[in-house]
Amino acid sequence: MTEEKKDQGAAGQGGQGGEGGRKGQGRPKVPRQSMPEQAPLVRAKNFDEVTLGYTEEQALLEASRCLQCKKPFCTTGCPVGIDIKSFIGLIQSKDYLSALAKIKESSLLPAVCGRVCPQEMQCEKVCILSKKGDSVAIGRLERFVADFQAKHGGGRIPKAEAPTGKKIAIVGAGPSGLTAAFDLTVMGHKVTIFEALHKAGGVLVYGIPEFRLPKAIVEREVKVLEQMGVEIKLNYVIGKIKTIDQLMSEDGFDAVYICNGAGLPWFMGIPGENLNGVYSANEFLTRSNLMKAFRFPEFDTPIKRFKNVAVVGGGNVAMDAVRTALRLGADNAYIVYRRSKDELPARKEEVEHAMHEGVQFKLLTAPVKVLGNEQGWVKGLECIEMELGDPDDSGRRRPVPKPGSEFTLEVDAVVVSIGTSSNPLLFQTTPGLGQTKRGYIEVESEQTCRTTKKGVFAGGDIVTGSATVILAMGAGRSAAKGIDEYLKTGEWWSKGAL
Amino acid sequence: MYEILKKTVWSAQEPRITEFVLNAPEIARAHKAGQFVIIIPRESGERIPLTIADKDAGAGTINILFQEVGASTMLLGSFKEGDRLTHVAGPLGKPTHVEKFGTVVCVGGGVGIAPVHPIAKAMKDAGNKVISILGARTKDLLIYEDLMRKASSEVRITTDDGSYVKKGFVTDELKQMIEVEKIPVDLVVVIGPPIMMKFVCKVTEPHRIKTFASLNTIMVDGTGMCGACRVTVGGKTRFVCVDGPEFDGHEVDYDEMMARQRQYLPEEKQAADICRKKLCHSA
Ligand SMILES: Cc1cc2nc3c(=O)[nH]c(=O)nc-3n(C[C@H](O)[C@H](O)[C@H](O)COP(=O)(O)OP(=O)(O)OC[C@H]3O[C@@H](n4cnc5c(N)ncnc54)[C@H](O)[C@@H]3O)c2cc1C
Ligand SMILES: Cc1cc2nc3c(=O)[nH]c(=O)nc-3n(C[C@H](O)[C@H](O)[C@H](O)COP(=O)(O)OP(=O)(O)OC[C@H]3O[C@@H](n4cnc5c(N)ncnc54)[C@H](O)[C@@H]3O)c2cc1C
Ligand code: SF4
Ligand code: SF4
Ligand code: FES
Predict the structure, then answer these.
(1) Cα distances (Å, whole numbers) of residue B24 to A131, A164, B37, B56, B82
(2) Residue A28 has what pLDDT?
(3) Is residue A194 in contact with ligand 1, taking CB distance under 6 Å?
């Protein structure tokens, strides 16, 4: 209690002292280190990574800002509870590999999370220095140690415990499945991942673009899993080639973990939505990322290079789509979002990057109708201006249309990025698998990940709805624990007992 | 896996029609009539949907048959026996709704005869009387005649140029059956170019004959994740890869579907030209 007070007091002082240094303790006042990045107008024309990562020098300076709090709040803000204070302490003493090992106690993919976590809403939000608005750049440091190891080598392939003889099937090779596979393998179980697509990684390979998350990073992590003995079967759409029941009754799997994401794209239900030139963000991004269509015709999948593109939505997916459109050569790339800037759900850094690259934000604007030409192609998006009314269920002020404010954006493509939901396939083919009202898989709790079907577990976006990479990974870890416990005790919960 | 065990060139006339027997035991075992696979011919390749035209579950093989209409199918056509396809995913899509309807007419146009084959077989096995109408531009492009004879109690054939059996279109023959010969038809299943499916549905609609049309939209993932394959059926947007490929043919908006199929024409042409010049390498 007293310690907590002391920390807060220190922060208060730091606040007055400026630049986050701890006043009166002789620490140098080091500002939050910005991360080098490609110049906005250069990067808006290529698919290389936007941010370049800290140099060792910058990382050391940034790490030096951490106060090594007695009661580190930062950890409470991380969904998987990474021991942030310790790993930054290890960076301070230049022991980068140990810092990485410390992170890996809680998170399998620091190179990924360091890049894509919404830190400003998680760990960095509660870092004591954030009171002053410049918390320690935890994500960037996390990325630094992971990249350091990738570049300089070192670190070992983790060893598995003695084989237990148990076989586990994982459905979906996204972050949740990869994490569960890792943990279960370390526990000594034999893991097979079944993935519908021809590459492992889930959203990390088909959704998030190369310029934000280089695919080589994901490939590297997948390779480590394979070296540990995880079998990854690509092109396996479970529910089609095999049902969950067949996996257990015919192929001898003792448990199944379903983590197939929430990939079914929503459309808006407005007129003109099936015109040529209207895409779901998933299609647009999958063509570009997974199929490498931005390199057509060197790669065989085509993508259109539009001059004026409107992306509807305000999340990470929308930012990824609009910035992809720019990189494909658009002169005008718009975000059409019905609330205001403060409510944009995307990571702050992505919104800033998009703005610097020249994306035009049409805020408080909602689409009404897609307009087409005689050949069936998009020629415009009719929109209406909105204003914020009373708060809705989510506590955010509800946008209401301003009568008579309709206007037309002249665009030749519209990318719909208003969210996704669960694919019905596994519900249709798995008797006994309970579904929530919102259409996701029902579980006993997000801790045990038990579904209503004995031996079957679920986690990640298919349980929570679209969330974040780190939450999906956290679910993978919980599921691994839950599965291990089930395999040891054979116990199930009342609802799924039959 | 996915080794090409046998290659048959059905018609050497351009665009060539080629059939592969692929080693794919698990797909063969799970397959039901009406389903398809997604193939990626090479690592840098695109995902293309092809119907499973036949299978031998015991031998663990599936047959696919394709016409070389563009870059990817030309590339596939350059594969030899013993080569392996990089990726094959399936079976995908909903199986055909098979039950005892009575008299079922299976209409296949062009390369669409191959996908209609397993459906005819399944319908016959379910106790239906199967009459098949096969259409081709010319005799040389007519495929699967013998297999269709085995799967049907009667086969009728039309060729656009009259080079084989009867000159005309499949729609003429269907009209003749229904309106002149007054054969009572309980169900029509049609697979072929969209324009042909549209006109077959125009023939059956006034007679209120239930008609299944199997749609061949552009696809990317084939698992319901992208929406590239969407069509309007009965005023609602549906995804062909997971809700189909078969739909009530009378409810499909064919004009929209055809417009959507033409989306990548310039790119397809560019890719095909490159392919023709260098003969795209299968590495
Ligand atoms: C474009 C985009 C940008 C994003 N940006 C961020 C970000 O910046 N930060 C962040 O934290 N989060 C972000 N997210 C969200 C984050 O990526 C997801 O929350 C996370 O990937 C969910 O992980 P998952 O493992 O549950 O599912 P997924 O990553 O969706 O993986 C599921 C896998 O299961 C496979 N699958 C589906 N059905 C079957 C089946 N029947 N059989 C076999 N396999 C199947 C899928 O092909 C897929 O590979 C973004 C999402 C998108 C789409
Ligand atoms: C569920 C399903 C099952 C299919 N089954 C078969 C099959 O068994 N055999 C077969 O030969 N084809 C089948 N098709 C069509 C096949 O997928 C396309 O012919 C193929 O993708 C063309 O690829 P490409 O690169 O060679 O040609 P592209 O360069 O993509 O196209 C060349 C030409 O073909 C036209 N075209 C493109 N896609 C289609 C399409 N889906 N349908 C009709 N015309 C198209 C284009 O408009 C263009 O004129 C199926 C399609 C679907 C959706
Ligand atoms: S995993 Fe994400 S939330 Fe946790 S410490 Fe790292 S960046 Fe912060
Ligand atoms: S990261 Fe912030 S909260 Fe955590 S120990 Fe360092 S200064 Fe304290
Ligand atoms: S092909 Fe992507 S949803 Fe059907």
Answers:
(1) 60, 31, 11, 10, 14
(2) 56
(3) yes
Q: What is the DSSP string of A407-435?
A: EEE--SEEEE-S-EE--THHHHH-TT--B
Q: d(Cα B183, Cα B128) in Å, to the nearest integer?
A: 14
A167-261+422-489 CATH fold = FAD/NAD(P)-binding domain (3.50.50)
Q: What token pair was written down for A407? A: 């206007």
Q: What's the CA gap between B31 and B13, in Å, rounded?
A: 31
Q: What is the DSSP letter of A135?
A: -
Ligand 2 atom nearest B64 alpha carbon: 8
Quickly state the pLDDT bin for B280 (edges 50, 70, 90): low
Model confidence pLDDT, tens digit, residues B168-194: 999 999 999 999 999 999 999 999 999
Interchain contact B218–A (C-beta under 8 A): no
Residue of B122, B179, B176, B132 whose CA lies nearest to B154: B132
- Distance (Å) from the C-alpha of residue A275 to the closest C-alpha of chain B? 7
| Domain coordinates in residue numbering, chain A | 3-152, 167-261+422-489, 265-420
* Per-residue tokens: B201: 């549905």
Give dist(CA B218, CA A290) in Å, integer.
Answer: 17
pLDDT of residue A325: 97
Q: Are A269 and A277 in contact (CB under 8 A)?
A: no
Chain-centre distance of CA B116, in angstroms? 6
A265-420 belongs to CATH 3.50.50.60: yes
Distance CA A454, CA A440 (A): 17
What is the DSSP annotation of A23-62?
A: TTTT---PPPPPPPB--HHHHTT--S-SB----HHHHHHH
In chain B, what residues touch A242 (CB-CB under 8 Å)? 26, 30
Distance CA A203, CA A198 (A): 13
DSSP A289: I
Ligand 5 atom at shortest distance from the alpha carbon of B226:
2
Q: Smallest Cα–Cα separation from B3: which of B66, B73, B60? A: B60
Distance from CA of B191 to the nearest CA of A (A): 22
Quote the pTM value: 0.92
Contact indicator for B102, B129 with CB cutoff of 8 Å: yes
Q: Distance between CA B225 and CA A195 in Å, rounded?
A: 13
Cα B61 from Cα B53, distance rounded (Å): 11
- Token readout for A488 is 């040891």
| Residue A462 in tokens | 């298919």
CA distances A19 to A9, A122, A157, B65, Å, are: 16, 21, 40, 68
Spatial distance between the Cα atoms of B15 and B22, rounded to a whole number of angstroms: 22
Q: Is the pLDDT of residue A384 over 60?
A: yes
Determine, for residues B226 and A265 on separate chains, whether the beta-carbon distance falls below 8 Å.
yes
Q: Which tokens in the block code for residue A258?
A: 């379903």
Ligand that comes closest to the CA of residue B220 = 5
Q: Which CATH class is domain A3-152?
A: mainly alpha
Would A3-152 and A167-261+422-489 be classified into the same CATH topology? no
Amino acid at A289: N
Burial of B9 (0-12, 13-18, 19+ CB in 10 A): exposed
Q: Which residues pair with A360 in a beta bridge?
A: A334
